[in-house]
Write a structure and sequence with these properties.
It is built from nine helices and 13 strands. It has about 290 residues and is an alpha/beta fold. A hairpin with a 4-residue loop joins strand 2 and strand 3. The longest helix has 14 residues. The model has no long low-confidence stretch (mean pLDDT about 95). The chain binds zinc ion (ZN).
């Protein structure tokens, strides 16, 4: 219990996601169900999202269709389960610019957007390199980069350079550069004087198996299969996250982790989407 409430809100899923995309080196191991989700943080004074999902009606939807994503639900429907309207959201912390994390920005016209400066610069560089570099564009909707430019003109974009402590009281942005993407970042949520920190990992960690190798008794790091950066940097970032949470893996929250619904209080909506309640601020009513 503390000052912040955190929910993980599923908005779509990829029931046939290649296992090799989630675990580096997991060749010929078929497919797995991968939830697509974003996170809602309520503080005393602010409504914030960590990532925003995608828009099924633009090119992000085409990318989603190409990898078998189903069940897309718009943010107004998803957030209503927690009594929030898209226009109530005033802060958006983007872990990275893959379509399923950034493509829903247009639904949140009142939000200030925080992304690492290096993330934006690297996508501009990749796009400028042209078609021969298109393998590095996997998961990118270029229109999302254009949207960041528009938000910048409107005074709603903040480019973060490295670590930003207390972007909101008790909420910190930590860089994980050259990992899943060039300018990935993750969010640390601090309740109760810092002894129960949460790490919202973005895609630096897809599932707990990235932390354990599926061998909890004798764990080892298996980095995500999809990475524009380095496997070593991914493992170093995972080690850093474990240090922040005192090696309590369950305080790392990966949005693509199906098991979150078993670890934390959860419920299914009418549309079959999971709502996971990671923590609840003092005096806040449960949404489960
Ligand atoms: Zn990603």
């Amino acid at each position: 219990m503390g000052a912040h409430s955190v929910w993980v809100l599923e908005y779509a899923r990829s029931p046939v996601h290649p296992v090799s995309g989630v675990y580096y080196g997991a060749h010929n191991q078929g497919t797995m169900n991968l939830p697509f989700a974003y996170m809602l943080i309520r503080t005393a004074d602010a409504v914030a999202l960590v990532d925003v999902g995608h828009d099924a009606n633009d090119f992000g939807g085409e990318i989603a269709n190409s990898i078998g994503v189903t069940g897309w639900t718009p943010p107004d429907v998803v957030l209503a389960e927690c009594g929030v309207r898209p226009e109530d959201v005033t802060y958006i912390f983007l872990t990275h610019a893959h379509f399923d994390h950034i493509g829903g920005l247009k639904f949140f016209p009142n939000a200030k957007i925080f992304i690492q400066k290096k993330e934006l610069a690297s996508w501009m560089w990749i796009l400028a390199k042209g078609r021969r570099f298109r393998s590095l564009q996997a998961g990118l909707n270029p229109a999302d980069i254009l949207y960041l430019t528009q938000a910048n003109i409107e005074g709603r974009l903040e480019l973060v350079e490295g670590r930003r402590e207390n972007v909101l009281p008790g909420i910190h942005l930590y860089p994980a550069h050259d990992t899943h993407t060039a300018g990935s970042q993750y969010v640390v949520v601090e309740n109760d004087d810092g002894d129960d920190k949460l790490v919202l990992s973005g895609d630096v960690i897809y599932t707990y198996q990235n932390l354990t190798g599926g061998s909890p008794a004798d764990p080892y790091f298996v980095p995500p299969g999809l990475a524009n950066g380095s496997q070593t940097k991914l493992i170093e970032a995972a080690e850093e996250m474990l240090g922040i949470v005192g090696n309590d893996e369950r305080r790392i929250i990966p949005v693509h982790e199906e098991q979150l619904a078993q670890i934390y209080p959860s419920r299914l909506t009418d549309r079959g989407l999971q709502i996971v309640e990671v923590c609840l601020a003092v005096g806040t009513q449960s949404k489960i």
